[in-house]
């Protein structure tokens, strides 16, 4: 069983790290998630019901960050509570080490694995976030992250805030799905294929695929402000969380180093546009992002040293993407500020540039 200890400075250290690189092999992501859904009709046994479910996330994780953004854009905070795991974990589970006593205050468990085992006592697959948990039973419902955000848009409409944007409009769904497929296989997962490559040849194949598709997406975004249509959609959320991690983590730690995001003008401006949009930058914690990757992936970074850089001040500089037109929220409105308990500390966000004298 893995144990957590503390060093002389009081920082948590894990005695049983996970293994992420298989020597001689390509990285292959296991996408066999729990496919149970929470729907209006409750066809899977879990009907939409405000206050019943808890979204368990980690700000460090790009897949979980998507759900945080969508929940906030749609205004589902009062309908779906949120539990925050810390940025580091061992081979066993994400844990609630940010909470007093290391226990989630609603679920009353120290690790998300407990919710998985409550429903599946012999669960042998990865313990992942995001996960939707049924609070009354303490059982995980689903960890199918691509479906979770789609269902937030389509099944929870009765509880959307006034002015919530249409992130998955019916007339654009086919195009959104097509764009999402390419972004996932080549970019979202592509950075991991580079970072977890088990051979030089595997890495070089992954590297070529990643930057080829980044160039394709850059060309698309040179003509339009958002990926699909003239408003923010699910597609933009999915690309953003990878771009936000690119310079802090993927460029160095995962060797995705043909160029930094900040050296790709179109993608850098696009990412800044989204970062400065309510719901995106205010859910992005750069400190936890760096801690997660550099401390958890000890087979890539054995020292566990977390780099001080990069300079984040550019994230709040003008992007001029509004010149391409488009309306971020369509006929809707920006979300209000996040609840106090869910705010990212200013020290963990990109600094706001000082006004010139």
TrEMBL record:
InterPro entries: Glutathione-S-Trfase_C-like, Glutathione-S-Trfase_C_sf, Glutathione_S-Trfase, Glutathione_S-Trfase_N, GST_Omega-like_C, GST_Omega/GSH, Thioredoxin-like_sf. Residues 169-293 form the GST C-terminal domain. The record marks 250, 293 as: Lowers pKa of active site Cys. Residues 1-16 have a biased composition (Polar residues). Glutathione binds at residue 94. GO terms for molecular function: glutathione transferase activity. The active site is at 61 (nucleophile), 192 (proton donor/acceptor). GO terms for cellular component: cytoplasm. Residues 1-26, 305-357 are annotated as: Disordered. This is Glutathione S-transferase C-terminal domain-containing protein. It comes from Williamsia herbipolensis.
